[in-house]
Amino acid sequence: MQNFDYKNPTRIIFGRGGIAKLSDVIPADARILMIYGGGSIKKNGVHDQVMAALEGREVQEFGGIEPNPTYETCMGAVHLCRREGLDYLLAVGGGSVIDATKFIAAAVGFTGDDPWDILRTFGANVESALPFSTVLTLPATGSEANSGSVISKKSSEEKLIFGSPLVFPQVSVLDPATTFSLPTKQVRNGLVDAFAHVCEQYVTSDNGADLQSRLAEGVLHALVTNAPACLAESDNYDARAEFMWSATMALNGLLGKGVTSDWSTHMIGHELTAFYGLDHAETLAVVLPGVWKAQLESKRTKLEQMGERVFGVKGAEAAIAAVEGFFNGLDMPTRLGDHQVDATEAADRIAERFETRGTVLGEEKDLTPARVREIVQSRG
Fold this sequence. Notes:
six-stranded parallel β-sheet, 8 strands
């Protein structure tokens, strides 16, 4: 096991009725901007619960955050905070809303010429951020308990990441009942997203970190076991609770400590979203099996381990097939052709962008742009 330094300052309030506790954790004198997405929280009762908890507080609202949050939309909230002197943010939604809130929190006090530089430097230039909390309504990204964010820029067709210890949520409320009204597609996407997050920290080189492996396998097993009920029974509290907590555990930083991570699937997937608008989880389901097949020998040990411990199959190839079968069983396509995306064109565009940036991926830094082209091409 490798050396590591781990701290997660986010307080988690988990379970039914947790939203009411916002009144106890958000400062009474805070000037709050509540940030959300397309407005579903006003249909499912979550908005009412939040406003009841914050009765008597100053609360302004900013809706319209996209499933892939854009820089352009986020800057509208930044300008609002600056103009109105708002000093506390509350993200109510899924990972996209929370990611947007992290960027907004960092951008409000940013003193540089162009806040997009926060993304260009991966957050290295973040010197301050507004405090914020979250109410999670869509389990998927783990953003409710980590310090990372992904933002897209429409004008340049870019999707970049940034992170900073200054953008951990102060408090995150996780009430599984808030997920009951989610469309099946969003539940499917969340399950795949969380599954891939675990794999990018687990299916890598063998680090001899048995506890980390067992933790990762536990999260994967919980996702696989509870997925059918999550999709078929929208009000199954126990299944949705397992799903919600698994998604948080998948990317709260714990699983990746002491081991090697490989985020190549995510990096390639981000480009598919930037160029073609695919949902994040849709890109992961396409790319992940291709990366594993290209890196079969270096990942063989962990693939075989996952196959036996999570799916009960033997062999690395059988493990990959089992994961593709799991995705397909969720009605999640695993080929670019299923999304009407030309694999040759996508491969060329992504390889060219990585070549321009000097991007090399993989835990061994052996996925060159040329090899990425082959991977994407193979997923047609």
